[in-house]
Amino acid sequence: MSKIFVDACFGKQTPYTPVWMMRQAGRYLPEYMAVRAEAGNFLNLCHDPKKACEVTLQPIDIVGVDAAILFSDILVIPDEMGMDLEFIKGFGPKFNDPIKTEADIDRLIGGDEAASKLTYVFDTIKLIKEDLDKRGGEIALIGFTGAPWTLATYMIEGEGTKTYNLCKKMMYSNPALLHKILAKVTEVVKLYMEKQIQAGIDVVQIFDSWAAAIEPSKYDEFSWKYMVEIADYLKGKYPHIPIIMFPKGIPAFLDKVYGNFEVFGVDWSTPMALAKEKLGDKYILQGNMEPCRLYSKEETTACVEAIQDIMGTKRHIFNLGHGILPDVPVENAIHFVKECQRVSKK
Asked: Where is the Uroporphyrinogen decarboxylase (URO-D) domain (predicted)?
């Protein structure tokens, strides 16, 4: 059965432009909050395949999106590499043993040994695929990973940061150490994503949430080239699996984007017309409504129509320019999806 989302990733003709939302399985849905409460905490939910499957599928039934995205977290990778991760209520993720020295890197588990520990993720994928197949197999399942740079920021800083001073201090004063971290993470990510594909995902998305923290002249060296290495590895073995690259906040260096992947995710700070001008001939574009527009149905419709005017009905996937926020009314999310499908229906 042909999947509209996968067809769109390869630039094929589709009956309308498909739509999904980053963080669509999440806190804005009361049904998600109920499952999370049952799980006890966020990490428990990630580790429970049945519950993770349930929340992955909720946006399909409730909001009507055209693709499911695996419910998990990017930080399960360093967690299974041996770092001490906890999620603190009202604070977020925290590593109690951040990386400071070469010895800290050397103690981490790498390669296939680390990737193979993520069995709960692969079990979740299998359960989701079983359910989607029962529904007719038309809905695609997106698997994902954080980019090595984004993962490394948490591993070095120990928590979320606004200044990135510890990672950037390492970038400028000890670049070899940072590259060693990035290379070790990249090897785990390659094998982790390969195992996600083998478990049944249809599409890969690589998130570089903290791309904007790196100055343009250093971005390729410390982030993009590692993302391209992951994409090259996966495309070499699984050419039928489309890859989405989503680096957040890099409008200043769209000219420097290259690599073997199909879809470029456009964040909300990048004008869609600029992305189309610079990259529209090379890649399918995904995005890019400002997530806060979801607070207003009128502003949502205006933005969806404006994006449609720019992109037309080809080489585009509707999405937000970052994740949906927790206090967005569910009816507004449904309105966004319906409007995307309405304006692009052929």
From this structure: 18-27, 142-158
